[in-house]
Q: What sequence folds into this?
């Protein structure tokens, strides 16, 4: 296991980032080391510069690193994070919109899943209510068959005369 806290940024950045794999590794190491620290805001421009050196016009790996960082950064830092990305990278605004879109899509999918679960629970509860209503109707019909008065049935069940009459005419 490698303890990144023992490395200074200069040690991680030492050497030429022009080799794509080395540059990507440097981006990852910097992101991992500072991701849960306020220092990420000062290291972020370095990560972006390394990306521009190794990725050129493409920024696929930078997008992955920034998405990760955005997911672990908390609260007010997210706004500063977005401002730095937009300022430091020529496509920063587009990157941040893409990251925001992915979070909106993820949030929408989660809400849809929650809604689906809620509908399932509601359907189950509706089924239970329908079963209970059928049972009450069955009991009321038996009470009528046994010759109980409407007043007695009303007192026992709490149902109104109209409801009891309606149940008595059901089959």
A:
């Amino acid at each position: 296991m490698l303890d990144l806290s023992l490395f200074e940024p200069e040690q991680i950045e030492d050497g030429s980032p022009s080799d794509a794999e080395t540059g990507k590794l440097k981006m990852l190491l910097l992101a991992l080391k500072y991701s849960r620290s306020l220092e990420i805001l000062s290291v972020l421009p370095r990560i972006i510069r390394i990306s521009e050196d190794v990725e050129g016009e493409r920024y696929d790996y930078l997008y992955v690193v920034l998405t990760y960082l955005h997911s672990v950064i908390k609260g007010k830092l997210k706004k500063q994070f977005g401002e730095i990305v937009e300022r430091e990278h020529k496509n920063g605004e587009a990157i941040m919109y893409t990251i925001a879109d992915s979070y909106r899509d993820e949030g929408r999918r989660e809400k849809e899943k929650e809604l689906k679960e809620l509908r399932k629970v509601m359907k189950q509860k509706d089924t239970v209510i329908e079963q209970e209503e059928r049972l009450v109707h069955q009991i009321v019909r038996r009470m009528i068959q046994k010759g109980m008065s409407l007043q007695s049935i009303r007192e026992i069940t709490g149902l109104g005369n109209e409801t009891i009459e309606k149940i008595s005419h059901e089959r």
Q: What stands out?
A: The chain has eight helices and no strands.
